[in-house]
Amino acid sequence: MEFCYSNYFINTNKHTNKEADSVQKTNAKGRMSGAIIAAILALSSVISLFYGASFYKSETQKFIDLANARAKQFEVVFNELLKARFRAMGIAADTLLQSKVTMEPFVNRDRAALGARVDPYFALLQKRHGVEQLNFWLPPATMLYRGRISRFGSVRRV
Fold this sequence. Notes:
This protein is mainly alpha-helical and 158 residues long. It has a domain at 1-70. Helix content is 78%, strand content 11%. It is built from three helices and three strands; from the N terminus they run αααβββ. It has helices at 2-98, 100-107, 111-129, and strands at 133-138, 142-149, 155-157. The chain has a three-stranded antiparallel β-sheet, with helices on one face.
């Protein structure tokens, strides 16, 4: 009986070993499948990361190029406006200096007459061109007229 029992045990053990081998093979296949799926997911994540970084770089570069182009356009427009403003101020200064009405009190060093004639002109320059100060000097350091805009926007002589 022992022999049978032992035979049965051995047979059962063989049968259990076959089942265990089958389970191990199934587990190994499952682990292998899981590893393959994990590797595929990791690879697709890396590829997606590189694609996203490349897309971000190209879009950022387009934005930077556009900003640089607009900055250059702004600089050109700004310089043209600045030149136009200086031309206008130069014309105004030339006109003011060629006017006998303005130059007579200046040459005669008559501050009151010069101020009376220049104040309306200075107010116009301030209103149209944003000029904040206008001075008439004689060398080395004699100031005959210094018009300034007060804090309240009115013209005052200093």
